[in-house]
């Protein structure tokens, strides 16, 4: 450890998009601070990137859904004199189902993970970026940010928050030369949404699903080109543009006539779990 390296800090780096963002940044010469709550996968990432790119990977295993996780990460970097030039707030979890049936602990974790931790990390690392006159921040939202729909009543709105926060802080940080970008992926062929159950090659061929490698590279390229947002894939761009125009009465009607997310009376409430990466 030391200050002779320039580091990219990536949360949720142990799998999926986060893994490939870390790999893409390693390919650009950055050493990596890899953070998640999956220590075995983090160790695999460290071995893979150090061998392939000759950079240093420092792993920090913590639950990013805890309110004090951002402070712990920042203090760890300060203690070990790690100069974080790139911050990627990628860690996420997914809950599907009605809010009234969602597990309280899972709800609290999602709110912290998607909103509190990214905001606090941005706040803490922005100060040192401003002092050095250089820095990059990428926050991972989702195309569900434009979908205030039943079943994703927690996931979509928290992703909408991070999208709007990113746009606001981008405007603030522009005065200091700090580049800030929001990545809004659509469906990605990872285990995050349980896509292992579907014929993902067919979905990818139809343009309905992207690989995590494609999404990661698009996001990193957009960050270094100082673009405000990146929505990988033409179909996803169309979705982000058109879905807000759909009358919510249509969504309400579909929800009323289906049993996709509706709670059943007189039955036990089910717990909906999510994975924090």
Summarize the topology.
Elements: E1 6-11, H1 16-27, E2 31-36, H2 39-53, E3 57-61, H3 69-79, E4 83-89, H4 104-132, E5 136-140, H5 155-174, E6 179-183, H6 200-205, H7 212-224, E7 229-230, H8 234-242, H9 248-257
Parallel strand pairs: 1-2, 1-4, 2-3, 4-5, 5-6, 6-7
Helix pairs in contact: 1-7, 3-4, 4-5
The H-level CATH homologous superfamily, spelled out, is NAD(P)-binding Rossmann-like Domain
- Broad shape: globular
The number of helical segments is 9
Q: What is the alpha-carbon Rg in Å?
A: 19 Å
Number of domains: 1
Give an overview of the whole structure.
The chain is globular and about 60 Å long. Strand 2, helix 2 and strand 3 form a beta-alpha-beta unit. It has one domain: Rossmann fold (3-Layer(aba) Sandwich). The chain has a 7-stranded parallel sheet with strand order 3-2-1-4-5-6-7, sandwiched between helices. 45% of the residues lie in helices and 13% in strands. The C terminus is likely disordered. It is built from 9 helices and 7 strands. The chain is of the alpha/beta class.
């Amino acid at each position: 450890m030391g200050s002779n390296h320039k580091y990219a800090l990536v949360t949720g780096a142990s799998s999926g998009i986060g893994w490939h963002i870390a790999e893409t940044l390693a390919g650009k010469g950055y050493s990596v601070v890899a953070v998640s709550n999956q220590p075995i996968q983090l160790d695999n990432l460290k071995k893979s990137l150090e061998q392939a790119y000759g950079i240093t990977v420092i792993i920090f295993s913590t639950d990013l859904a805890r309110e004090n996780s951002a402070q712990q990460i920042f203090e760890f970097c300060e203690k070990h004199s790690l100069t974080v030039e790139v911050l990627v707030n990628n860690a996420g979890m997914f809950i599907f189902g009605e809010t009234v049936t969602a597990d309280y602990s899972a709800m609290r974790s999602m709110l912290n993970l998607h909103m509190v931790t990214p905001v606090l990390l941005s706040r803490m690392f922005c100060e040192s970026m401003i002092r050095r006159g250089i820095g990059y921040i990428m926050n991972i939202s989702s195309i569900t940010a434009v979908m205030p729909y039943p079943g994703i009543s927690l996931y979509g709105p928290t992703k909408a928050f991070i999208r709007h926060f990113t746009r606001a802080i981008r405007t603030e940080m522009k005065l200091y030369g700090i580049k800030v970008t929001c990545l809004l992926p659509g469906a990605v062929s990872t285990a995050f949404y349980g896509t292992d159950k579907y014929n993902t090659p067919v979905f990818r061929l139809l343009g309905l699903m992207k690989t995590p490698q494609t999404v990661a590279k698009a996001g990193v390229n957009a960050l270094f080109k100082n673009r405000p947002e990146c929505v990988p894939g033409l179909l996803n761009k169309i979705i982000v543009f058109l879905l807000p125009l759909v009358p919510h009465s249509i969504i309400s009607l579909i929800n009323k006539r289906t049993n996709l997310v509706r709670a059943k009376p007189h039955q036990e409430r089910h717990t909906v779990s999510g994975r924090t990466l």
